[in-house]
Specification:
The protein has 17 helices and seven strands. It is an alpha/beta fold. The radius of gyration is 29 Å and the shape is flat.
Length: 316
């Protein structure tokens, strides 16, 4: 055993070592190797094992709105997005450049799904990532409105993530208190950690929604500086995601949760037409279940109501 291999083996934890050896025994190829060759494979396999566990933990903690989002399921052509425009962000090139990303487009254009794709890719590269909806921030303020220390802790926690995704960015106007919080958060992250903003409004409309004052200028300066914009069209990547779940036969209540709808009526009213041959399926299921016998003559004492008289028949 060479000295380099000894150094690598000394840092292995017993639990990790047992796990890797068990995996080797399950795999036919390493099991056929001699003792020294199997030892040489241990450090590389352990690194892979640790990285896979780290990725799984990061992916679980990020709590993406679309947890199944991945680059492989992203239909750029259908979404009207150039794949070349996605390649660099998906490879986390914007992270090394400390550049912000703005994903803009109309409601239902797929901004959330695209941001979740980038979030999933960031986790795969072992980057600590946080996904948050901007409407959730005021709820935290309200819960801790009298606790300044907790608000500061919350802001610093968001600021410490390597990649921060803020969905539904400025979909509603914010007040002065929220604007001040956003300014401090962006100031903390500016130039060190990138932020992904996903919202309906373009850069020229955001100034007013931030309050339109000097503080709004400061926020916009820090966001726009060294940033990229990815426009999502109205071809609706969310619809693609919904149609995929429907084609898989998923329960409508599950689809509602995945799409982030508050009411099932919203889901069915928007995507109900995607259910293929739903009327025919119901008719086939009812065949043989309901039976009837045609009436022979009327037992009604009146026939003046043309809409009801035909139903008053006596069955033989």
């Amino acid at each position: 055993m060479n000295m380099e291999l000894k150094k690598q083996l000394t840092v292995l934890e017993p639990g990790d070592l047992v796990s890797v050896i068990e995996n080797q025994e399950k795999n036919v190829s390493p099991a056929d190797l001699n003792y020294n060759d199997r030892l040489e494979h241990l450090p590389a396999e352990l690194i892979t094992e640790r990285q896979n566990r780290l990725i799984a933990r990061l992916t679980k903690n990020v709590e993406l709105k679309c947890p199944n989002a991945s680059l492989g399921t992203l239909d750029c052509e259908a979404g009207g997005i150039s794949r070349d425009m996605i390649v660099n962000p998906a490879s986390m090139g914007f992270v090394s450049a400390d550049a912000n990303l703005s994903i803009t487009g109309a409601r239902g254009a797929g901004k959330t799904y695209l941001s979740c794709v980038l979030g999933a890719e960031a986790c795969k590269q072992t980057l600590r990532t946080c996904y948050i909806r901007m409407p959730d921030m005021p709820g935290h303020f309200q819960n801790h409105k009298d606790n300044l220390r907790e608000q500061v802790r919350y802001r610093k926690r968001l600021g410490n993530y390597k990649v921060l995704i803020i969905d539904e960015w400025l979909n509603y106007k914010i007040n002065e208190r929220e604007s001040k919080f956003i300014y401090k958060l962006i100031e903390q992250r500016c130039g060190s950690s990138p932020t992904i903003f996903a919202g309906q409004y373009d850069a020229e409309d955001r100034h007013e929604r931030l309050g339109g004052e000097a503080q709004a200028d400061s926020i916009m300066d820090r966001i726009i500086h060294n940033s990229y914009t990815i426009p999502a069209t109205a071809n609706n990547l969310r619809k693609l995601y919904a149609s995929l779940l429907i084609s898989m036969g998923e329960n409508p209540l599950l689809i509602k949760e995945r799409l982030g709808h508050e009411k099932i009526q919203t889901t069915l009213g928007t995507y109900g037409h995607l259910y293929p041959n739903s009327n025919l399926e119901v008719a086939n299921k009812l065949t043989g279940v309901l039976t009837y016998t045609p009436a022979s003559h009327s037992i009604a004492d009146y026939t003046s109501n043309q809409h009801t008289a035909i139903y008053h028949r006596e069955v033989e």
